[in-house]
Design goal:
alpha/beta; 3-stranded antiparallel β-sheet; 221 residues; 5-stranded parallel β-sheet; 50% helix; Rossmann fold; 9 helices
């Protein structure tokens, strides 16, 4: 019996995916993979290598050759620690743009499937339950009110100093629209996903709900 599950956690920005996914993975002894960080890594590398975000072929070639490690608290790109550098408004916007490039998504989805093969992984993103692992044993979609998501994002240490709530809310709304309307792998909740509104919940409460769902999924596997 396979008891090493694939747990797919999807949702828009600011719903707590990262913290929740890390805590669920720690509780289960699973690997945590942040797929959003992988798209951020491509955007960051494109910036540092002066690759135009309008050049789909160059972005695809870049994604195909990059060595990205987005498991655990740090993010490495070709061995370079970039965790802080990829968590900026500029890279937010860049990640949204590179995520629309079909070749980039093909390259990164292939990496993500290799990383998740065999189970024992908590993978977070925007298309894990719908595209990357549509047969995942556990699928969760996290959401929260727009005000709560903006409040959380505003308190992100990297962003805190330069932006106000209105600016943060506007940026998040624009990112949501881009993610939900892109032609390739748009942000969407899988039909068989468990929806959790994190607005009134603590991180611990969300984690406990997902662990309960995972326990039920393990029993069916």
């Amino acid at each position: 019996m396979n008891t090493r599950l694939i747990i797919a956690i999807d949702g828009p920005s600011g719903v707590g995916k990262g913290t929740v996914a890390r805590d669920v993975a720690a509780a289960l002894g699973y690997r945590h993979i942040d797929t959003g960080a992988m798209y951020r890594a491509v955007a960051w590398r494109a910036k540092t290598a002066a690759v135009s975000l309008d050049d789909a072929d160059a972005l695809t070639a870049l994604a195909e050759r990059l060595d990205i490690v987005a498991s655990g608290p740090s993010v490495l790109v070709d061995g370079v620690e970039v965790s802080g550098e990829i968590r900026t408004p500029e890279i937010d916007r860049g990640a949204s743009r590179v995520a629309r490039v079909a070749g980039v998504r093909t390259a990164l989805v292939a990496q993500q499937r290799r990383l998740g093969a065999g189970g024992g992984v908590v993978m977070e993103g925007r298309d894990i339950g719908t595209v990357v692992f549509p047969d995942a044993e556990v699928k969760v979609y996290l959401d929260a009110s727009a005000d709560e998501r903006a409040r959380r994002r505003l308190h992100d240490d990297v962003r805190r100093e330069t932006r106000d709530p209105g600016q943060v809310a506007g940026e998040m709304a624009a990112r949501d629209e881009a993610d939900r309307t892109r032609a390739v792998a748009p942000l969407a909740m899988a039909a068989d996903a468990h929806l959790i509104d994190t607005t009134p919940l603590s991180i611990r409460q969300v984690v406990e709900q997902i662990l309960a769902i995972a326990a039920a999924g393990r029993g069916r596997s």
